Automatic annotation (TrEMBL):
CDD domains assigned to the protein according to its UniProt record, in alphabetical order: GAT1_cyanophycinase (cd03145)
Protein name per Swiss-Prot or TrEMBL: Cyanophycinase
Source organism (scientific name): Streptomyces narbonensis
Lineage: Bacteria, Bacillati, Actinomycetota, Actinomycetes, Kitasatosporales
Keyword Protease belongs to the record: yes
Domain of life: Bacteria
Length: 429
């Protein structure tokens, strides 16, 4: 068995039935890129797998929260509550919200924050989301960090009813962001920053085969989404996380197409998408960390479904790495200073890739398979390559093509890092 962290199954959280029904029946009109309320603060969104020693990302959050005066509020309501953790009494094995909150608070102090505190909201403390005492705690903070787990627990704990209104605590955090605070999150804590159609689960192959459905499902492979979305801090595109590590490019493309969004920010592990002026027409993004962020662009893409299955033509894949920037309004990427265009010279064929979305069913699969083929193509003289899904009947072929205007960039000779404008087509076999 290969190591891969994902829930064995997904369940609707206790006490949230009315909310689920409201979310399913109140589907907003599908949309292209949109901007929400303007915020003077900033976002630091990590694709999961944030390492304890990632001083770049922790340092960026602390810097934006005031440097040595930073006070970080840690929210871990996406974790199981203490009452559901069989190891709650063991500090070395516990994984509940309180335990994780203390863990992150200590990390922020270790990385230089003046103070960091757990904000005591979870499924065991639902009333705290509207507590004036907790609101006062939030108002004393200069930055916030949302931990990982299950983003739907954030919906359940911090949003109210089928209208998705803010709890007092979320309203206070939103006001702090509007006033200049930094809001950060990793994995589920980044996902919850989404606007409409926040992903709630699913795997790439099943997404391509079956499409998406509004809701939150017991089947972990089924592509689900919450129509009213998450907190709406970032609305210029959908958000997905753990992208290459879990092979989620396929599900991200299918969800964007089904819900008529024209862009996905597909975040990689241990790496941050930093967003300045979120919600404004001057929204600017940059990448910080050892991996990258894929921008999946569907502005010119066309999807169709036939008896053979679903297909997508003319999407674009831009993969941004450390220091690269991106302007949301125009969809313009800019490689980091010091990176130079890659001049391909390899004449050998692109290696065969028969598991482009790193299937959980393939014990020999490798993570980052989609990115690997894209970079292998960029390093060669050939301008087109294909890869396939591990699953068959039906299988899917992904075609990577270098159209006019495609460029690859790197600060290392001969090794493509940043890719701009690679064409992606997906078709059933």
């Amino acid at each position: 068995m290969r190591a891969r962290t994902r829930p064995a199954r997904r369940v609707v959280l206790a006490g949230s039935t009315a909310l689920v029904l409201g979310l399913l029946t109140a589907t907003p009109a599908a949309q292209a890129t949109s901007f929400g309320p303007r915020h003077a603060g900033s976002l630091v969104l990590v694709g999961g797998g944030l390492r304890d020693d990632n001083s770049q990302v922790y340092g960026e959050i602390i810097k934006r929260a005031g440097g040595p005066k930073a006070r970080i509020g840690v929210i871990t309501a996406a974790s199981v509550p203490e009452s559901q953790d069989p190891d709650a009494a063991d500090p070395d094995r516990c994984s509940n919200s309180a335990c994780n909150g203390g863990y992150y608070a200590n990390l922020f102090k270790k990385h230089g924050a003046a103070d960091a505190q757990w904000v005591p909201i979870d499924l065991d403390h639902l009333a705290n989301a509207d507590s004036d005492t907790v609101v006062a705690q939030v108002n004393a903070m200069t930055g916030f960090f949302f931990g990982g787990g299950d983003q739907y627990r954030y919906v359940t704990t911090l949003l109210n009813g089928d209208r998705h209104t803010d709890s007092k605590v979320l309203a206070a955090i939103r006001a702090k962001l509007a006033g200049g605070a930094v809001v950060a999150g990793s994995s589920a804590g980044a996902q919850i920053a989404s606007g409409p159609d926040m992903v709630s689960g699913g795997e790439s192959y099943e997404a391509l085969r079956d499409g998406s459905s509004p809701g939150y499902f017991d089947d972990a492979t089924r592509l689900g989404y919450i129509p009213r979305g998450g907190f709406g801090f970032l609305r210029s595109g959908l958000i997905d996380t753990h992208t290459g590590a879990y092979g989620r490019e396929g599900r991200a493309l299918r969800l964007a197409s089904d819900t008529r969004h024209d862009r996905v920010y597909a975040l990689e592990e241990n790496t941050a998408l930093v967003v300045d002026n979120p919600g404004s027409t001057d929204e600017r993004l940059s990448v910080l960390g050892p991996n990258g962020v894929a921008v999946l662009d569907l502005r010119r893409a066309q999807a169709r479904t036939t008896t053979a299955g679903w297909s997508l033509n003319n999407a674009r894949y831009t993969y941004l790495t450390h220091g690269d920037r991106y302007t949301a309004r125009t969809g313009t990427p800019l490689p980091a200073p010091g990176k130079k265009p890659v001049i391909p010279g390899d004449t050998t064929p692109v290696p065969v890739n028969s598991d482009v979305f790193y299937s959980a069913a393939n014990p020999e699969g490798r993570p980052y398979a989609f990115r690997t083929t894209a970079r292998e193509l960029a390093a060669r003289l050939q301008t087109r390559a294909t890869a396939t899904t591990y699953e068959t009947q039906p299988g899917f072929t992904v075609t990577f093509t270098e159209p006019r205007g495609f460029t690859a960039w790197s600060d290392t000779a001969g090794s493509p890092q940043t890719l701009i404008g690679l064409r992606i087509d997906i078709a059933p076999e």
